[in-house]
Fold these 3 entries.
Entry 1:
Amino acid sequence: MARPISCIVASQGGFLAWLVIAGFASGVVASVAGCGARASSTAAPGAVGALPVESEAARLGRSCDAGVLDACASLGSLYDAGDAVARDPARASALYQRGCDGGHSRSCYNLGVSYQDGSGVDKDEPLAASLYRKACDGGFGVGCYNLAVCYERGIGQARDLTLAATHYQRACDLGEPPACTNLGVYFANGLAGEDNPQKAVALFARGCDGGNLPGCGGLGLSYVMGAGVAKDLERGVALVRRACDGKLQAACYNLGLFYLEGVVVAKDAARGAALLQGACAAGVVAACTPPTPASPTPASPTPSPSATPKAAP
């Protein structure tokens, strides 16, 4: 599975702002179910009528042999995950290749993850990037998302933040909430040549509305700081709390500061310290040496709280 990429984090008044540039989508993504895994069939494993997964694998094999490319991708996902069949990454990659050769975008995406991870094939990052591009051009949003990360980090191709932003926009428009959030980070920090906090707020809102916790955290801090939107401390703290409740530790760090400083919530040094300790243990560097209002500590990049996998059933 592809490793998470570090976040880009800015410090404003001690708070961790613009919470995350999330890493690659990787692993095995439910078919048309957003970023999170490799793509497979529209049916859940082991849930085709009363048939066991072994029969499902046989059915998918027959359909794949008959030229149904979605079945090839779905069967590949079963072999990729070892889901009631013996795990065989090489066979999975061959099935993805078959689908991709036929123009099946989800197969191209999954094959890209295989080449990025070196799973069943020799690791080849330039080829992975080209496969993400093919998936993206076919309208598969997670392919656009991973291609954006490749441009952002210079993985398999030259680093280009403008092209990264372009592909985050494509992925966002294709329904990938983490891409909306990441593009919001770009506009919040002027990373692609445009510093536009109003656009950042709109993108954080799209990410948050789509269930992306860093988007909620970024939107919450926008309200707390009045960046690109009228200041609304109560709404901002509520959004940050929502992200923390979802175990986003950078948001828990911010919530801890709210308790320490009495921002909307009543001051509670013990609760604030506990939240910072948990965030520190989870790798949020700033939480290990918490800033004070008089002397804020610049935030360091922190590990991405999540990565998104290949598409699965």
Entry 2:
Amino acid sequence: MKECGILVPIVTPCRPSGELDMEGLRQVCQDMLSAGCHSLFVGSSTGRGPWLSREERVKICQAVVAQVDGKVPVVAGCISLGLDDMIENAQAMKAAGAQAAVVTAPVYFKYSQAELARIFLDFADASPLPVMLYDIPDFAGIKMSQEIILELARHENIIGFKDSTDDFPRFQALLAALQARSDFYLLQGKERWLADSLRQGASGFVVSMTHLDPLLFSTLYQAARSGNVEQADVLQAAISRVMVLVAQMFSRRPETSTLFHFLNQVLRLRGVCENIVLEQDGECPAWLVETAAQAREICAAAIPAR
């Protein structure tokens, strides 16, 4: 498996009206770089990519590429409703400086596995960027089969796969099937499986909660890679406690804006950026402010000496 490390799906700082906050974006990038993260992902679901116009995504990508200045790779979400628009997104992101295109199944319509494979193969044929596939059934409405994933992994322009299904047995099966592929990235997309995935040979991980404390996630990665099982397990336990809070908050408020409010409160507490929520997201409930503070405390306590 090819090494990737921590690929961060960065948030998109903005004004409540939607105007991009470019200084806040630079601060988010620097926060991740300072903690030792290995690459940045613009236009992700965490970054509200599907909501943004292509022009906004181009502007974000250009700013992030300029900020990292070649220190780490930048990959870009090219998610859309149809193939032509996905390809045009990839062309725009290449021009903006991205080094790979990330795509999910096109949303809105229902597809068979064979139809989905055809869409991805056609995209990979046409994309001017190497392609990373992203399986996230909660948003895309379909879970890719293991057989289709392995078929697609043979395409010369498909370089990786991010698994956000929470199906760890399938992830293990993919690890076993792809372990000899030194040219392919297999990335874990669920926080509770990070330590186990890294120990078993995953290329790295892509999780939104890295924003809570990038040093915590970076330290977990290093501990797992160096074979420090005890430290990795302690840090994973802290992350898992945070994820219990996250599950509880989504049970209470299932809207996607709950994630944006939660991350917004944490980023404010950490002094990274001022705002990532939009007017339509409404006011942040007091209990969610408290949940964010509790999550921040758990993360801070996991690495007391900084």
Entry 3:
Amino acid sequence: MTGLAQRRDLQRRVSPSQPRIVRQFFTAALLLASACGQSPSQRRPADGVYAGDPIHAGDLLQVSVFATPELSGKVQVNRRGAITLPEAGRIPIAGLTIGEAQRRVAGALRDYLLAPQVQILVLRAAIPLVSVLGAVNRPGTYPAGAHTTLLQILARAGGTTPHCSGQVLVTHIHHGKAEGSDWYDLRALQQPGSSGPQLRGNDLVEVFRGGEVYVGGAVRKPGRYALNANPLNVYQAITLAGGLRSGRAQSTAVLVRRNGAGQMLTSLIALETPPSGPATNTRLRAGDLLLVPESTGRKVLLHGAETALATGSAIVTGLIVFH
């Protein structure tokens, strides 16, 4: 008689019609024998991950059902997070701890066995991965343990680039589908006492790039400059561009900006010494064009195509003339 047939025969013999003391005796005997057969630790081998960690798709498990070799053996958690056992069929266990998975499998076997005792050991743990995209120095996929935080993953990706806007979107992928997302501000996460959110396997982390402004005219290093997580005012933008060229800059800068309707607006901003007023109060936006006219000429000429190339977008067209 096979082990499974023996267990079923025992289940028939220890039926509800038997005296209660008889049923309690057989159940206690099964529990004791199973407890003797279990190992005191549920530690995963070699990788240092413990039973409190969740089971992942791809994990290779050893499932042992006491005195029933027909239901015991090696199984792998499929990509949908389930295992398949004879008699019990498909049992979803991904995301459960080892103890929780043992109880779920035992519950699925109660229609076939009197008091199923299940032990699960992770023979080979699949490594959950997190994908990192956007304004980081090394985009790619990185391993994420059970308690890996967003800041730790960003550090593994080489940190953020100077073009980072400070905004991060974490999308949770489950069974190949997006199941919710969360926005995070890196400035808030980097405050003392903040550990940041913990990530899960298959999460997608997108670090958004900030916009750019163009600073030109009588500055030492004209060009594009990134708007990162910190606001940038007119004076700071000129400082990033190397400051004013001595003796050649006017005391007024010209700010070119498109409004919400797509119209191009210009405004004059006084460059006072020391910096104050509009030069420190006016915050730049993505796509702004800041020009410091030459003091020796009456006009500043900037060809539209050159501006579009510098800013990466057609903020202006044609020939701009500032008197």
